[in-house]
Amino acid sequence: MIAGLYRDGNSVLHRAQAGAKILAMVALGTGVFLIPDWPVVSLVLVSVIVLYRISGFGWATMTAQIKPMFWLLAIFFAVQLWLNDWQAGLLVITRIAAIVMFASLVTLTTKTSDMLASLERAMRPLKPLGVNPEKVSLAISMVLRFIPVIATVASEIRDAQRARGLDRSILAMIVPLIIRTLKMADDVADAIEARSFD
Amino acid sequence: MIRFENVSVQFDARRALEDIDLTLSQKRIGIIGANGSGKSTFVRLLNGLQTATSGRVLIDDLDPVKDGRKVRRHVGFVFQNPDNQIVYPVVEEDLAFGLKALKLPKDEINRRIDEILARYDLSDFKTHPSHLLSGGQKQLLAISGVLVMEPRYIVLDEPTTLLDLRNRNRVEHAIADLDQTVITVSHDLDLIAGYDRVLVFENGRIVIDDIPANAISKYREMMA
């Protein structure tokens, strides 16, 4: 889960400002698409791998970040090989791998609260336009927090409906999920109010 | 001191609380009653989550409706399901949530977080994703999230209902060690057996107000 990616540490990247890391991520994401040569993009990817080592992460952590993308990268490579040549295929997959690996590295070395604090700071100039940075930040954190909670609720409902022989009914899954989520939203709103957030 | 002055709460056609008039000055107050008897409505009045249709509630002379922010600062509320109370994805971030709302300095926030985590043996879980904690740890985190705010009163709404016996006992000990005034709504009669005073609710009224031994025994007869 997204919320569980941060790993404690004291490396340069762990200590770096969250805002600087997010900016670097945007720059890298844009930069690799401006570079037309696969050897140069490969060098960027190697640099990202070096950053993993500097940040204290081993090969297992590194491969875990890219493993879920493996088949997608294989398909992209095959399509490029069919439409163009192997160099074009290599260019596409090294670009995607560099971006995904760096984004994961930023998440691994940055606390959600630090990322949200940077976001809050970045949104402050929008206050006169009616944007409330604290509320936006709270909303994002709650999305991260409640993804696993709602997944658990969905799993409970699926088991209950399966026990009643309704495992093929989408309605039997969706209706209780919506009702429980709305009830939960009410309770969470009360809890937030009770914890002095206005 | 908490004061209820002729408080009634009406939900459309249903009267949830009727003419409650009492003073709560004891350190441990238990609230019991059947489902829908008005227990939760009663405690929700304490920090302004619910407003009275008539009468008024005073918490140390403050009205939760008029002085909501001040009252919520002094009345911490722990809900039945900790999953609905924990709003941040990481343990320390959730504990910092209420403290940031109070605009406390960062050092003070960190001090309070470290202190409360050590108190409940959760220090190793400081940077842990909150959804991966056990049920008991989540309830302790929810209680911690309230305690870091240093309230004078703590309201617990069925805090042990979703817990297994071991975690229930952990929460019971945690409550017993609190210095604050504690008001507990519960179906767990053992939890409130050692309290100073127990109120029994039925159909929106307080039908028994006594020491736990008497109140629980009469309540058992009522429910038989």
Structure description:
The complex is a heterodimer of chains A (198) and B (224). Chain A is mostly helical. Chain A folds into 2 domains: 2-110, no CATH class; 124-194, no CATH class. Chain A has 9 helices and no strands. In chain A, helix 7 packs across helix 8 (133-163). The two termini of chain A are 29 Å apart. In chain A, 22% of the residues are buried. With 224 residues, chain B is an alpha/beta fold. Chain B is 35% helix and 26% strand. Chain B has 8 helices and 9 strands. In chain B, the strands form 2 sheets. Chain B has a 6-stranded mixed sheet with strand order 5-6-7-3-8-9. Chain B has a 3-stranded antiparallel sheet with strand order 2-1-4, with no helix packed on it. In chain B, helix 5 runs parallel beside helix 6. Chain B is globular. The two termini of chain B are 34 Å apart. At the A-B interface, helix 8 and helix 9 of A face helix 2 and helix 3 of B.
Q: What's this model, at a glance?
A:
The complex is a heterodimer of chains A (198) and B (224). Chain A is mainly α and 198 residues long.
